[in-house]
């Protein structure tokens, strides 16, 4: 067994219970046991498909879950038809695009209907735009998009791995190789095609539906099933990709340089990502950095570290090649987990986090074939400013917050450098993602959700992934009692494997 951890700082919060506007499904419901046959009669082509023989999910925690049936819609019309059948009978379902969320039930469901979007693979470059936009079906992965655009010397602000599905990463925010200049993945979406809870197929833009457009940029799967997106492209020839690795003793100088670069990212640098890791093969803790630059001369003249790296390499790479290289670090089929924290930019806090990481993870280093690492992702002032375009996104990060760097809580709180934001795409199952967006953004997201999904279909029938919940003052009409569950917060700073 191979177990991977990216982060192990976990927050447990019990969210308010949802108000049941629709009939609550039961495990022994005879209709839901037959729902697959009903869908087959109404949408037969959704079953006329044999998927490739491969792991459907990135993490085995998900792939071990068995749904009642899997349906493969071909277009938004199929999705709408399937959704209408499920909601009319109050039957549980899950939606899968890329399937890279790690925990059981994120995009899977035991015994229910799994709606797999992998046949929604439209991928067209709209040459009428300048620069062109690309129309991307929700069944595509970022590798598919990069492969199409690389030949045109174009790219998009997709994720840094090629394997994640396009729609899930966008709905969670999406960190990119190019976030320094473009913002996050969600910030370059020009149009969403979405199937709402009532089965309506709607096109959402900043001008046509500004509230829903805002909510879809970070609001997760709470508003409908996204079936297609139109994404802004930009000119991008090859990038200079560099990797450096140091021994553990160099961590202080590396983090001092990271603080400096996060505060003022050198011109021509698109990305810096710093990783602390346990390597099971070399049996040691190491620290490494990856850089994306516009040119080799830009990289060598602007990136400087006091400590000489033990390993160093640099290559010219396409966006697809960079993403595939990242994929090799995170292969499918293992028991993968991750979590996320955000802290203000402070080298002293980074060092403290690294030392806590090593002390805590030393307990796991006796296990065979285990990889443990934490990645520090700078969120710079320019990146945050790009998030404000087209009305901004739902993440709750303002220019006044920057610069920020992801990861760890206890050490950050000790130094007064903790920031509330939790990155949805990298969050652990029990983290309060939407609470971390801020009270006003959470309230606005719930109001928009109430407008487009008043019966709570995507809260009740699709339980997987992060849910907005209902307003704490909602009252159960049957019992007359408040459904607000104040919850218990528990911070776990070590993992028992």
UniProtKB/TrEMBL annotation:
First and last residue of the signal peptide: 1-20
Keywords linked to the UniProt accession: FAD, Flavoprotein, Oxidoreductase, Signal
Highest taxon above the source species: Eukaryota
GO terms for MF: FAD binding; oxidoreductase activity
Keyword Membrane part of the UniProt annotation: no
Domain FAD-binding PCMH-type: 63-236
Pfam family, one: BBE
Residue ranges the record marks as coiled coil: none
Family to which the UniProt record says this protein belongs: Belongs to the oxygen-dependent FAD-linked oxidoreductase family.
Name by which UniProt lists this protein: FAD-binding domain-containing protein
Organism: Hyaloscypha hepaticicola
Source organism phylogeny: Eukaryota, Fungi, Dikarya, Ascomycota, Pezizomycotina
């Amino acid at each position: 067994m191979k177990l991977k951890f990216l982060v192990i700082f976990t927050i447990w919060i019990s969210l308010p219970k949802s108000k049941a506007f629709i009939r609550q499904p039961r495990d022994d419901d005879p209709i839901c046991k037959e729902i697959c046959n009903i869908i087959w009669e109404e949408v037969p082509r959704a079953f006329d498909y044999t998927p490739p023989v491969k792991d459907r999910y990135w993490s085995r925690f998900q792939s071990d879950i068995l749904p009642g049936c899997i349906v493969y819609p071909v277009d938004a019309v199929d999705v709408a038809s399937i959704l209408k059948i499920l909601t009319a009978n109050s039957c549980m379902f899950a939606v899968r695009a890329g399937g890279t969320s790690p925990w059981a039930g994120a995009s899977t469901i035991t015994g229910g209907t799994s709606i797999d979007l992998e046949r929604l693979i439209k991928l067209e470059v709209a040459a009428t735009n300048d620069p062109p936009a690309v129309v991307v079906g929700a069944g595509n992965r970022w590798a598919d998009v990069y492969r199409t655009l690389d030949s045109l010397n174009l790219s998009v602000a997709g994720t840094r791995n090629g394997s994640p599905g396009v729609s899930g990463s966008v709905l969670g925010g999406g960190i990119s190789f190019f976030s320094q200049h473009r913002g996050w993945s969600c910030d370059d979406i020009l149009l969403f095609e979405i199937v709402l809870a009532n089965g309506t197929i709607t096109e959402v833009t900043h001008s046509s539906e500004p509230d829903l457009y805002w909510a879809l940029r970070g609001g997760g799967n709470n508003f409908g099933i996204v079936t297609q997106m139109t994404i802004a492209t930009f000119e991008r020839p090859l990038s200079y990709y560099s990797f450096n690795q140091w021994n553990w003793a160099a961590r202080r100088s590396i983090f001092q340089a990271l603080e400096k670069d996060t505060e003022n990212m050198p011109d021509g640098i698109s990305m810096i990502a710093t990783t602390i890791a346990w390597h099971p093969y070399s049996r040691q803790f190491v620290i490494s950095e990856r850089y994306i630059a516009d040119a080799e001369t830009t990289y060598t003249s602007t990136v400087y570290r006091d400590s000489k790296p033990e390993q160093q390499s640099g290559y010219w790479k396409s966006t697809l090649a960079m993403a595939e290289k990242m994929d090799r670090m995170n292969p499918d089929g293992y028991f993968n987990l991750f979590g996320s924290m955000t802290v203000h930019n402070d080298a002293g806090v980074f060092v403290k986090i690294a030392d806590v990481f090593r002390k805590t993870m030393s307990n796991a280093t006796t296990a065979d074939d285990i990889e443990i690492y934490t990645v520090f992702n700078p969120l710079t002032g320019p990146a945050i400013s790009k998030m404000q375009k087209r009305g901004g996104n739902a993440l709750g990060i303002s220019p006044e917050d920057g610069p920020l760097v992801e990861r760890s809580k206890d050490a950050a709180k000790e130094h007064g450098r903790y920031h509330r934001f939790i990155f949805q795409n990298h969050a652990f199952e029990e983290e309060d993602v939407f609470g971390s967006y801020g009270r006003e953004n959470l309230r606005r997201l719930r109001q928009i959700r109430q407008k487009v999904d008043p019966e709570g279909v995507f809260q009740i029938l699709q339980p997987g992934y992060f849910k907005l919940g209902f307003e704490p003052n909602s009252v159960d009409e049957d019992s007359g009692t408040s459904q607000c569950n104040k919850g218990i917060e528990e911070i776990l700073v070590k993992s028992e494997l």
